[in-house]
Design brief:
The protein contains six helices and three strands, in the order H-E-H-H-E-H-E-H-H. The protein is mainly α and about 110 residues long. The chain has a domain at about 20-90. The longest helix is centred in the N-terminal third of the chain and has 11 residues, at about 5-15. The termini are far apart.
Length: about 110
């Protein structure tokens, strides 16, 4: 089996419909948060995500869901993960300030 044969089979097996996945910007719009907050939630493990493959990036570009591909690539977030995040309890200002205060003690 050649590398190209494997890649072609992966493309055939991969659906071009990413309706179950959201980009960082789409998740930010749905959760009414800034994209930086979504990236933080991903890094803290609050949102499940994965990197888009080059083929997926091309499909997202063709669908006009993204305008370009940054150097770090595109993160795809599962819709179910975003739905769970809509029901999470929001932190109060006091809790956020306490977390910031504890960052210096780590």
């Amino acid at each position: 089996m050649t590398l190209y044969g494997r890649i072609n089979r992966e493309k055939e097996a991969m659906p071009d419909d990413f309706s179950h996945m959201l980009t960082v910007e789409e998740a930010a719009q749905e959760l009414k948060l800034a994209p930086s907050s979504i990236r933080r939630m991903i890094s803290e493990g609050e949102l499940d995500s994965r990197s888009a493959t080059p083929h997926e990036q091309g499909v997202l570009l063709a669908q006009h869901r993204i305008r370009g591909v940054p150097g770090k690539g595109i993160r795809l977030i599962w819709q179910s993960s975003v739905e769970k995040a809509t029901h999470r309890r929001k932190r109060t200002t006091k809790e956020r300030l306490q977390e910031r205060g504890n960052e210096g003690t780590r």
